[in-house]
Amino acid sequence: MLSEKLILILVLIVLFLLYTQIGYAQTAQLGADLKTRGNFSLSIEKVMYRPARWESEKVKEYESEIVNKGGLVHIYYRNTSDKSVSIRYWRWNRKDRSYWVLNHFIAWDRYINRTVQPGQVGVLEINATSEDYGVGKEFILQLVDNNSRLCSNVEGALVESTIRITYLRVLPGLKNLQVFVKNFSDTNVVPGNVYVNSSPTTSVKWNKSSISKGELAIASIELPNPLPIGEWCLVCIEINDTKGNPVDKVYAHRRVFEDEFPIGVWTNSPETYETLYNLHIDTMVEGGSKDKPFFTEVAPKYGFRAMVHTGVPTNVEVVKEFSGHPHVICWMIQDEPDWSMPANLVYSAYDQLVRYDRTKPTFITLCRNIKFFEYASICDIPCQDHYSVTAPSSSIWPKPYGTRLEETAYYTRDLKLASEPKPIWVWSQAIADWGERPKRPVPTPDELSAQLVLNLSRGAKGILWFNHDKKVASKYPELEKEMQGWGRVMSILKEYFLGSDPVGFVGKVDDKVDIALLEGINYTILCITNLDYEIHPEAYPFKYKDNLKITLNSQMHYKTAVEVTPGGLKQLSISNKGNSIELELPKLNSATIVLLHSETVEDRLKKQWEEIVSKEKVHLYPIENKLK
To answer: What pLDDT is stored for residue 34 in this prediction?
Structure first.
């Protein structure tokens, strides 16, 4: 009897060794050292990994002792069996999910398609904060199904994805997408087949046939049918080398909502509706009851949309009240939860909210760049509200009343990285009465303009002014004038901002000028900010620049160069020389925006401009339209 038991034990040991040491198979993920043990019902298609990262040299948070040493781990799995599979839980390095959650090694996790049908793809998101999920860390991932059986068992190492979908745009009608793919690797690649929710598309048009190192390529995708609103959209793009050989796959996902570019504000009242409309503001924080005059009379009259606060925990009655309302643009889960609420509580509020309503996107405002990676990807539209002068701040300032204006650009850039491929909005500093700078408690027009353009330049897909306080505005009419002017600029460029994404500036310009590029299919937006100023207790003095020469390295040939200013459109001369463009800006005050287009679009822009200013009852900002 004893010998039989020993023989049985030896057989089991041999089988185990064969299973663990020999039974490897390469998964469908290409270009990565990811191996699976044996045959399972779920194959791991791809592990997309983005380590937590934020600006820590030029910006220092007051509370920065506890840092995020992990990152976003997105595991894409496919059901390769002929039956549906439901995942019960996951293990990482042979420790159950509960170990990682209860010991605060991860902030939260989420399944998209926890039950997958044959051939269907799902996602496990792990928002990790511990060094166990750091760059280069080896892992064993196991998925366990509802029958307590392993349905996937893989091992590999966490490597940052070098080709990423940085932005996934949903166009009106929900039948067309724009997918922005950036190459962070050292080799040129060629985009291949595209799949949306595991299905082929009707048509795909790329603006570039190949993607060089550091370049951005954009795919315009048409689908056979509209995507269901509020449901998840999973995009997969096959990546080939220049000889056509497959080398990788990239995935991204987001919920389906028509992307819009709001121009918003927090405060509103019956006394300010006309003023806000005159400033081109279309979005504001509102709630209460759908029978309020704001929703029955004001919003239909002016075209206003409301950001409705739902809170943590979720106010279910508010959600039921406004579910599907045509004048609600989003659910505002919480303002600045990264100061006071653990990320898992915020995620729980999100999870409860979307169980009650899937007709509107969710929105969260964050304030601490050191926490963006933990919170931003919870919701559909992440936002940040970092201001650089006279306002309270989470960062350490060189002066009690202010810091460098470009701090807000670092926060917007950090938020975008933590949020990809979702659109981000930004609260940009405007008319509010803060006390940190007693000599002038509000920003100057130059300070307001510079911060706005810096936020737009780093990828904001919506701007919310903070704020428009009626009493304060009456003391500083020059700020209402500035808001109206920039409202014109954003109104005419909304579609251009929505259809572009940041790329690095390569060229020549004054070393005290910041130029950030937003690249679209056939155009480029130049966001130009004057950094030649000093921090000052009353007003940052700018050294304006005349006849600013700009050389831009670009393979695109441009026919149009138009400066879009608060006062009007100005034609600029442009010279295409091989792979570079030269242009001259007659004058740079604090900030401006230039649109370069491969087509002749002056007449179209002029018509749009005239329509926008015709809505104004009072022209606070003088019109100086110099477009030929």
So the answer is: 80
